[in-house]
Amino acid sequence: MTDTTHIALCSGGTDSVAATHAAMTFGPAEEVVFAHTRTDPPDAYSAIDATIDWIADWCDSNGWPFRVVEAPTAFDEIVAEEGAPGPSRHYLMYRRLKDRPFDARQQEERGDVHYWTGIRRWESDNRMEVAEPEGERGDGRWYWRSPLVNFTDERVRQYMDRFDLEPAPVVQELGRSADCFCGAFGDRAELIDLEAAGFEEHAEWLRNLETPDDCPKEQQRWAGYNWEKHDWAADDDLQATLCSSCGAAMPDGGNKQTDE
Fold first, then answer.
1. Choosing a second label site near 137 at 20 to 30 A (CA), which of 79, 113, 144, 214?
2. Hey, which CATH number is domain 4-240, 2.40.160.50, 3.40.50.620, 3.40.710.10, 3.40.50.740?
């Protein structure tokens, strides 16, 4: 018989927290994992660090195993070599910053790995079309499952209220999940939000990333394209699977992608 491992992925956002709680409490998940994209300064306390600390404490209070899996290459190294990513490079960034850590986690197991996520059809028109209860990623090396796929916004709120759950404080402060700052669909105003939330060094690090002199002007600064996110995200299937940070924020601090 093939061994199967079930893991709840948690970014600290509203849907992610609800899905993690459901997977760990009522489902088969046996571990909570946070994907560290390394899109933050290594020598300063960042929004990502704050998210990890909150999830670690939350898991500890529930007796759930928790671990962080890291992208193999630091984001500043990627940017120094290739320039800041724009919308057309989101797929490559996603593969390098999230898929590869999940691939590495899967390789520790002998059998299939199923990652449980907070994806919902009711988040946006795009997700309504493509979100499914489960799907395959990593060329069959692992799978994702969506326990809340048919939950409406109201049903998620009811679930959160029933079990006295809240998203991570940093998510509530920023109005978006704080697990990735690759900026592929970014807006430089997000750096102001980071500073307002007390993460000035994180914002400055992103603002001052070194880029190649010969890269396109738009790639010489973080979020240099500054496009309207929904113009690009509507055609980006990755945001309909496991990428939760690129969309507009929910009024209550979740990670709903309202215009995508």
1. 79
2. 3.40.50.620
